[in-house]
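Propose amino acids for all 380 sites.
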């Protein structure tokens, strides 16, 4: 208890804001939805997994922290039940639709968030995939450009874009070489035409829906042991800039971070080693994300009960160990006492407007919102 008490005292000076909540079941996703809502979903319940849309506390919705506020909790706005575990959930921009994926196959489920006079998230359709049975769950991303689209796939040999409402396939691509059987760890729309994929071995592939040649390997995996698992994090391009101008971050299960400029793929922008333990969960919850409102900052999690924040602006390609500017330890010390195993952070995400505010969730069902204090000089 001494370490927990010490962290509690330190938190008074380490955090500008810190909210802790308990979900009924742990989540491995936190997704911003329409109207500054937040979606979470269960992933391991045998009797059904709840999908919830939450209204954040008012302090999270205002641009400035307002000190004491009577409402400091999330409120459930609406919810639904999925018979299968929900491993990924994406809000479809400019609609009331959500798309989810999860075991036992690569099919997708489409949900509708009901109107304001209802508190139900209802299942509206299923997007089946060719040869989807027996494949791992699909990684997904969404965009609303020409129409509401979902990008999905579980391996490099077949990724596709499907129109969400009509379920019509509008684009298919894949690598048929031996690498095609590689599992996908992450994928993303860079814009309505450019797609970026990351395999579990760290290989980056680009696709342009306007070009017939399909996927092209953009960047090979860094030279590391083949047993390492990789994921990636992308940034949304600033207004008026090219989507490929934003650096892509890749994170390995041993804590290696590789930053790549897609306009110059022959070399790494920067390489650094995070000071993290080897994950004991088979890298299942690896997560790396760029801060949307704080240039050069990224966060990583999935190794233990912490979230590490880094400022990458001074990084080079040496691969030396990087010092985090902040480590959130609240999931280790802030949960219920007496649990046998310390919780593992399952996911984190940044607030879209508040530069230093993050949301994180852990395997014990804890959900935290935190805004760290920027130290004067070196972070202590």
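Proposal:
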């Amino acid at each position: 208890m001494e370490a927990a008490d010490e962290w509690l005292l330190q938190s008074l000076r380490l955090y500008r804001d810190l909210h802790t909540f308990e979900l009924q079941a742990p989540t491995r996703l936190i997704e911003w939805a329409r109207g500054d809502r937040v979606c979470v979903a269960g992933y391991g319940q045998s009797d059904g997994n709840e999908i919830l849309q939450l209204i954040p506390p008012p302090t999270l919705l205002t641009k400035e922290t307002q000190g004491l506020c009577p409402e400091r909790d999330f409120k459930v706005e609406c919810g639904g039940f999925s018979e299968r575990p929900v491993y990924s959930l994406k809000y479809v921009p400019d609609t009331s639709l959500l798309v989810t994926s999860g075991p036992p196959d690569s099919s997708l489920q489409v949900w509708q968030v009901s109107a304001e006079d209802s508190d139900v998230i209802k299942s509206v359709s299923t997007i089946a995939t060719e040869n989807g049975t027996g494949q791992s769950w699909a990684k997904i991303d969404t965009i609303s450009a020409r129409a509401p689209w979902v990008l999905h796939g579980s391996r490099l040999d077949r990724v596709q874009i499907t129109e969400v409402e009509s379920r019509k396939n509008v684009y298919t691509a894949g690598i048929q070489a031996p690498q095609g059987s590689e599992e996908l760890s992450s994928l993303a729309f860079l814009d309505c035409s450019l797609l970026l994929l990351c395999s579990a071995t760290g290989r980056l592939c680009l696709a342009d829906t306007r070009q017939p040649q399909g996927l092209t390997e953009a960047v090979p995996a860094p030279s590391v042991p083949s047993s390492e698992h990789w994921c990636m994090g992308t940034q949304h391009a600033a207004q008026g800039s090219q989507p490929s101008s934003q650096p892509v971050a890749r994170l390995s299960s041993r804590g290696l971070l590789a930053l790549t400029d897609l306009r110059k793929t022959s070399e790494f922008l920067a390489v650094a080693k995070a000071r993290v333990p080897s994950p004991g969960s088979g890298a299942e919850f690896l997560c790396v994300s760029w801060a949307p409102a704080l240039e050069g900052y990224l966060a990583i999690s999935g190794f233990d009960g912490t979230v590490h924040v880094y400022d990458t602006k001074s990084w080079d390609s040496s691969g030396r160990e990087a010092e985090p500017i902040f480590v959130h330890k609240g999931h280790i010390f802030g949960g219920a006492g007496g649990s046998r195993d310390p919780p593992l952070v399952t996911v984190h995400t940044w607030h879209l407007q508040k530069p230093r505010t993050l949301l994180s969730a852990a395997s014990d069902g804890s959900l935290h919102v935190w805004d760290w204090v920027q130290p004067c000089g070196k972070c202590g």
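The chain has a mean pLDDT of 87. The helical segments are 2-14, 58-61, 330-333.
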